[in-house]
DNA sequence: ATCCGCCGTGGACAAATTGTCCACGGCGGA
DNA sequence: TCCGCCGTGGACAATTTGTCCACGGCGGAT
């Protein structure tokens, strides 16, 4: 089957080149079956890191995303995935397309900046629903750490709180209780983590 | 002098057409001397509404902006202005270029949306510098009303506060004192306006 | 098994902020 | 001149924020 998918993958890769890579995964071994136009350095046989899909809401049958990802060098990607099943409904392959957004981001920035400092009337962007963004941020962090909420280590928590702090979350009214709820902690625990994170800049383990 | 400026104005208008208008104002009578490629419906002789310039920080000698403005139909503009002086330093004319940003905005939105719901890592967008956005919002409002800060009517103030409220500004910690400063009012005045604005949805003058 | 240290919990409290109220003074119109 | 409206500043109550600490659970070392 993977063979029959190959032309499709290559076609997509060519269409979007050089801004996208196409990866075919083997869900059984959780490894890369084939890759076209790699952006990341992965090659055939590398682990897939596909567990992530479990977390995501499929938008339709076996279709996931688009969802954001990042390359180690900081470039941002938009990704979609599709599960290919055999005649009996068993997953046979997972096809992922990762588009490098940086070129589009740059162009958008150029256009958006055209003769304009402009914030204008969309004042409605001040707060939006910061509570949702908070949850997202926490969820992302947890996912990145590959753990669950209560499986986080202390230093993980400090790190997360530091991130939220840097993001200005705590300038929001009533944020501490909300963060506490989002992290599944007590209010005081959050204050304690916050104190820690503000004490030591960004160390891992002091000797 | 205005005559000698005409070719310049027309050239600029043609270069940017159909996305920009060029207006030549007479600061003495505060009216429109000439206009090329009008976006607004102003014609020669109309009042200029130029007092606004006093409020803005010039970026260089007699050069203002770019600053955002809006057309009655909602299109957003980016504007720059320049003061032309005679041999003795008296203002002789004011040249304004207003670029219709809507096309650029649209293009930017398309690019920005490319394959992306993306919240990604820019968590740093939570608060940004809401204080600056606050000032901008206030300044925009004042400019739109064509008045100065202390020239606002009571209902204007209520309206502005309502806008800020809707924008979620007051969910920000310590926002009331800051808003008070930005509006040149006392803290209690802001609370009073806020109470009013929350009482009546959006009426002008109840019978 | 027991002890110890780490960590989070909850609650008590002090400090700060937020929201209300009101008397006073300026200002414009009848 | 008198009146009504409006903002000011300050007093105060209500809430929220931040700190502290004793208690209890849990895992590792003894």
TrEMBL record, chains A, B:
Record domain YheO-like: where: 4-108
The protein, known as: Putative transcriptional regulator YheO
Pfam family, one: PAS_6
Domain Transcriptional regulator DauR-like HTH: 134-194
